[in-house]
């Protein structure tokens, strides 16, 4: 397993977070100790209340299973919510790995002929991109081609984003469930720190309308910028279709993620 070290009791495992958690004093904690999931954690996953908010379920699960984060003992729910999404996904992957093993059955559907391909993924083999040792996470600056045009015709084309956290994931869960694209707009709006020299209150009043009005090519620029920083576990894989023989790119199928397979 990547970056992992078994601690004496063998139920707890140590990992290095891709980004890290900054506490109120500005100290960054990157060494995470997870324990294996228990029957109680399984009950959290089965809880009906969580069907409407998977992000909240992940927060509770990580809050329970994180034994230590740097010098913080039992960090709990609040810290799990404040972790960057990249770190949360990484920890979830490791939680699956230490509890059920690294192999996971995944099903992909060919975009051309719809043939299903079943593969066994080895989660331990997925590439993990981490910040360098003393590197600090910088905000993401994106220069748009078309930009956001307001009613007076002023163009705003430099956007600055912070990286999303568990709190953001929880807040946009309802919108995402109804409409994935709307959920994405809501997430981008939450993480948008500035747009050109537009005053903050005006930016907040616009909310996700900024992204609904944006051209698709600009939206692609934002996606590419977010991917190119690519911190955390790389979830893209190439699949060869057994039906038509074509190769296609897909995000790793996580539907069996928190179950033995
Ligand atoms: Zn095919």
From TrEMBL:
It comes from the Bacteria. Pfam families: T4_baseplate. This is Uncharacterized protein. The lineage of its organism: Bacteria, Bacillati, Actinomycetota, Actinomycetes, Kitasatosporales.
